[in-house]
Amino acid sequence: xxxxxxxxxxxxxxxxxxxxxxxxxxxxxxxxxxxxxxxxxxxxxxxxxxxxxxxxxxxxxxxxxxxxxxxxxxxxxxxxxxxxxxxxxxxxxxxxxxxxxxxxxxxxxxxxxxxxxxxxxxxxxxxxxxxxxxxxxxxxxxxxxxxxxxxxxxxxxxxxxxxxxxxxxxxxxxxxxxxxxxxxxxxxxxxxxxxxxxxxxxxxxxxxxxxxxxxxxxxxxxxxxxxxxxxxxxxxxxxxxxxxxxxxxxxxxxxxxxxxxxxxxxxxxxxxxxxxxxxxxxxxxxxxxxxxxxxxxxxxxxxxxxxxxxxxxxxxxxxxxxxxxxxxxxxxxxxxxxxxxxxxxxx
Length: 347
Ligand code: ADP
Ligand code: MG
Description:
Elements: H1 5-23, E1 25-33, E2 36-45, H2 47-67, H3 75-84, E3 89-90, H4 93-108, H5 118-123, H6 139-146, E4 155-158, E5 161-164, H7 177-191, E6 197-201, E7 204-208, E8 216-220, E9 230-234, E10 239-244, E11 249-252, E12 255-258, E13 261-262, E14 267-268, E15 272-279, H8 282-306, E16 311-316, E17 321-323, H9 325-330, E18 331-333, H10 335-343
Antiparallel strand pairs: 1-2, 2-6, 3-5, 4-5, 6-7, 7-10, 8-9, 9-18, 10-15, 11-12, 13-14, 15-16, 16-17
The protein binds adenosine-5'-diphosphate and magnesium ion.
């Protein structure tokens, strides 16, 4: 069969289009895990690679959601049962690594980040599916739970075997686990040959590569739930973690109490609405965001120095901001928020 020139160029165009498709497209996959919505977006990938990667990620999230959360049947619950009974318990290398990272961050934050205060967190009712305590816990009860000074200094290791002399310790790695989970999600993507992707776990995210040849630009949510208050440029290999007092809370007599506690008082943090940290280590970003939220505006500068952060932003409950100069360079403010932040509350 002989084709005329018009047909030949049309076929050449089709072949070019086909190879462009083969070179990859952008895909997005959403699923529910870890009590939130997870979104994986990948750029310039083949569909089959993407499906296979997101299947692995979804399976990993389902498994780790059981292993590392307080009331699900997994290794964290087993560890807590053993600690309560004064028994040694063997954990996975991954959980040991997470607890050891938390030990470092507890020390960097002078105890503001503390994974050992699970009993106090339970007293406030935050582990219930619908957290609804009838009343603020009795201060004497809070004091009693903290009297033994629960902290990672009271944990000891023999290989992967953990034990604690303090049976009041209940581990809760909720303030750091998403960092490790995001890191592993990125490893799974890379193992599937996917280099340009964003894993977003309920607003905490890790960026690999670029978005169609440009740096990723993500919105920073306003604590009051309004439109994004700023856009943030995120480079390849960076993670963005936010701790907010608006995400999960209990309401008692019309007042909201956040799920993040100040370990020194055993009470929910009130002074700060949110903290966002950008770092190449998502585990550090996750823990630092929680620690800086507990520290509040007064300890912002000191904690930035201790954690050696280049990019951190804190919004206090009145809407005033504290931020590092590196963060200021990365942020593109939405105008109305900037005005509000500069003038402050009540003006
Ligand atoms: P997110 O809810 O976005 O994951 P965080 O990373 O700040 O926010 O984690 C909050 C969780 O950390 C709480 O639900 C609780 O499990 C745990 N937590 C609460 N207070 C502290 C604290 N002072 N130090 C470490 N972990 C904490
Ligand atoms: Mg955190």
